[in-house]
Amino acid sequence: MAWTGNQTLISHFVLLGLFSRTPLHLFLFSIIMVMFLVALSGNGLMILLILVDSRLHSPMYFFLSWLSLMDLMLISTIVPRMAADFLMGRGSISFTGCGLQILFFLTLLGDECFLLAFMAYDRYVAISNPLRYSVVMSRRVCWLMEIDHFFCEVPAVLKLACADTSLYETMIYVCCVLMLLLPFSVISASYLRILVAVLRMRSAEGRQKAFATCSSHMMVVSLFYGAAMITYMRPQAYHSSKQDKVVSAFYTMITPMLNPLIYSLRNKEVTGALRKLLGKCPCGGGALG
Questions:
Q1: pLDDT bracket for residue 82 (50, 70, 90)
Q2: Is the distance from CB of 24 to CB of 156 less than 8 angstroms?
Q3: Per residue in 114-128, is it b (16+ CB within 10 Å) or e — as a string?
Q4: Are strands 146-147 and 12-15 parallel, antiparallel or unpaired?
Q5: What CA–CA distance (Å, rounded) separates 148 from 17?
Q6: Higher per-residue pLDDT: 244 or 11
Q7: CB 186 within 8 A of CB 221
Q8: What are phi and psi of 161, to 5 degrees?
Q9: Residue 219, Cβ neighbours under 10 Å: how many?
Q10: What is the CA radius of gyration of the chain?
Q11: Which sequence ranges form a coiled-coil region, renumbered to this chain (predicted)?
Q12: Paired sense of beta strands 12-15 and 92-94, if any
């Protein structure tokens, strides 16, 4: 903060955070940190398994490895800073730091939107054209700059503006049409055709396996896109700080934690690769043998 004549130049924002220092919020903060550690270990393990096991070197697992990498970067962009602010009892962030956080967050969010669309198309090709799958999917400014949020998210930052932000809101909406609605339309079309293909299967076991393969992906899509659309596609007048914080937690913390759990627990190849990896460890060889 600097003084120039009678004016005060503010050089930072103040993040009000997600929690206060009540016993309930301390408990919730502990849960968030456990989720963060689960997300780090789960996504890191998924990347390691896909790299070291040659049986997982297929387009499906190539997409899964990128999803895990994006989730690692996404949650690492938000949670460590939020935890440090909470533990230190202050939440100031420079204008440059806030801008960089917005840049990394929106870049990763947009990349994950399109990646989920590619994953939906991958499942459609695998189910409807299994013989051609390997060919088709081959790798070819105001007084006190307080942000009532736990990170620099665009709608929360826009609330600080003293001027008319309708143009920026329109630009955000247009971007969301490209980054949310377009990929979501591809996903919806892919899964509609998957459903038609699955219903035509004569084998009940085959139908069950196909539904099991796609259900985990649909869970991720519903959580991720639903929360992002609520945050970025509603008019500014309908936003409330408490609701925005809860909704943002879904695609910044909960989804990155669930992705490796869902894909690994429902996938025989991944669990097999995990047993193989643990079998190579001297500490686990005896127990697995």
A1: confident
A2: no
A3: ebbbbbbbbbbbbbb
A4: parallel
A5: 7
A6: 244
A7: no
A8: -70, 135
A9: 14
A10: 22
A11: none
A12: antiparallel
pLDDT in tens, 172-205: 778 877 888 888 888 888 888 888 888 887 777 7
3-state DSSP of the chain: CEEECCEEECCEEEECCCCCCCHHHHHHHHHHHHHHHHHHHHHHHHHHHHHHCHHHCCHHHHHHHHHHHHHHHHHHHHHHHHHHHHHHCCCEEEHHHHHHHHHHHHHHHHHHHHHHHHHHHHHHHHHHCHHHHHHHCCCCCCCCCEECCCCCCHHHHHCCCCCCCHHHHHHHHHHHHHHHHHHHHHHHHHHHHHHHHHHCCCCHHHHHHHHHHHHHHHHHHHHHHHHHHHHHCCCHHHCCHHHHHHHHHHHHHHHHHHHHHHHHHCCHHHHHHHHHHHHHCHHHHHHHC
- Who wins on pLDDT, 17 or 263? 17
Q: What is the pLDDT of residue 158?
A: 74
Those residues with Cβ within 8 angstroms of residue 47's Cβ, 6 or more apart along the chain or in another chain: 65, 68, 69, 72
CA distance 42 to 112: 17
pLDDT in the model for residue 37 = 92
